[in-house]
């Protein structure tokens, strides 16, 4: 494979960094990790932090498409990196940008798909017109990265070129742990970090914890994050008088790192449409054994009984059983913690993942210019 060794100019399309979101966090960490051989430019797309009203947000898409035509025509970046998710909002917005790039015959495009809705994928695959239109627009990039083997298989089943699709992971920023050390404590801390929204597994975890607490009084539970379900969780803890539950709301990166390092077991029994959850990788990097589920790209980075417990079914009882199986075996906990820390830093730290992406940039530029 021919690789270009000069400095590459890469234009990256992603949202306003002042609006909290996983794509912006991922790209910013990636940009910080690149060395001087990759020069990146943020091409702002989507809602701005100052936008008010749906019409303004909708108009942004069309203005951004015009800006993209001008930018590609004048700046002539070596590679354009686009970051869609397979949901309705992103499908139309980023589809317009990809159509623009196709009509401009801009072939040096890397597409990193960060999210995936299985129901939408099935609807596209089941409709011949939508399937052909989707492939016409979304199979244009020279390289596509997805977060799960199953997502790759679904694209291939819709007629996408398998040689252009690669599975990779999300990343964690190793700098988040700089200067932070574990604070010793006597309780055994279960940690959950995610947006508190339906499908993330908070309720099954809360019920499991309430079941275990009388038998294991030194257990404590930490919910870290904010979202639509937060008030309901707070109310349930209060009304049921469930002791030793901490609900932090949104926290800074440093505080999150401290909570992870102070934790003993990460529990994330999600049924949500995950890609590859960064919080899971962060927990592994902190040396936490984990309990999670077979959603999205999780099975591509997490091995049952090696990294912890990979649940086949999500109920409060399966979560109880998984917690007990790990909590009751200190040797297993320690061995799993060491394996997770090693695997995360070797494979998912931002510099490691960013180097894989940088290699893709160079391969794309070389292939198109050869």
Label the overall shape.
globular
Uncertain stretches: none
**In the CATH hierarchy, what is the class of the largest domain?**
Alpha Beta
Radius of gyration: 22 Å
CATH architectural name of the largest domain: 3-Layer(aba) Sandwich
- Going by CATH, the homologous superfamily of the largest domain would be Glycogen Phosphorylase B
Helix percentage: 40-55%
With strands numbered from the N-terminus, the spatial order across the biggest sheet is 2-1-3-5-7-8
| Helix-strand string | EHEHEEHEEHHEHEEHEHEHEHEHEHHH
How large a portion of the residues is in β-strands, by DSSP E? 15-25%
Quaternary organisation: single chain
Q: Count of DSSP helices?
A: 14
The SS-based structural class is: alpha/beta
Taking the sheet with the most strands, its summary is: 6 strands, parallel
CATH topology of the largest domain: Rossmann fold
Rounded mean pLDDT score: 94
**Count of domains:** 2
Number of E-state strands: 14
How far apart are the termini?
11 Å
Quick rundown:
By secondary structure, the protein is α/β, with parallel strands linked by helices. It has 14 helices and 14 strands. It folds into 2 domains: 8-171 and 350-369, Rossmann fold (3-Layer(aba) Sandwich), CATH 3.40.50; 174-347, Rossmann fold, CATH 3.40.50.
């Amino acid at each position: 494979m021919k690789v270009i060794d000069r400095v590459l100019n890469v234009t990256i399309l992603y949202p306003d960094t002042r609006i909290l979101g996983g794509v912006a966090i991922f790209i910013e960490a990636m940009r910080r990790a690149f060395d001087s051989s990759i020069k990146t430019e943020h091409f702002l797309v989507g809602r701005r932090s100052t936008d008010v009203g749906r019409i303004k947000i909708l108009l942004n898409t069309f203005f951004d498409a015009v800006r993209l035509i001008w930018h590609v025509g004048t700046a002539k970046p070596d590679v354009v990196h686009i970051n869609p998710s397979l949901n309705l909002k992103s499908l139309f917005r980023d589809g317009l940008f990809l159509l623009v790039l196709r009509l401009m015959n801009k072939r040096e495009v890397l597409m990193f798909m960060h999210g995936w809705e299985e129901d939408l994928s099935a609807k596209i695959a089941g409709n011949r017109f939508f399937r052909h239109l989707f492939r016409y627009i979304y199979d244009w990039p020279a390289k596509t990265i997805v977060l799960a083997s199953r997502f790759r298989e679904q694209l291939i089943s819709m007629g996408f070129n398998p040689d252009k699709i690669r599975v990779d992971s999300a990343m964690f920023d190793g700098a988040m742990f700089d200067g932070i050390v574990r604070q010793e404590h006597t309780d055994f801390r279960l940690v959950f970090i995610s947006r508190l929204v339906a499908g993330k597994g908070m309720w099954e975890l809360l019920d499991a914890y309430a079941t275990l607490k009388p038998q294991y009084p030194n257990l404590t539970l930490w919910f870290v994050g904010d979202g639509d379900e937060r008030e309901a969780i707070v109310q349930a803890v209060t009304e049921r008088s469930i002791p030793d539950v901490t609900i932090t709301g949104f926290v800074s990166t440093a505080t999150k790192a401290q909570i992870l390092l102070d934790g003993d077991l990460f529990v994330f029994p999600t049924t949500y449409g995950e890609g590859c959850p960064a919080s899971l990788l962060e927990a592994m990097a902190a040396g936490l054994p984990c309990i999670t589920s077979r959603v999205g790209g999780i099975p591509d980075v997490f091995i049952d009984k090696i990294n912890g417990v990979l649940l086949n079914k999500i109920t409060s009882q399966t979560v109880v059983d998984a917690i007990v199986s790990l909590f009751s075996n200190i040797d297993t906990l320690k061995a799993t913690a060491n394996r997770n820390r090693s695997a995360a830093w070797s494979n998912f730290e931002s510099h490691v993942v960013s180097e894989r992406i940088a290699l893709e940039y160079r391969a794309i530029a070389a292939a198109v210019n050869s």
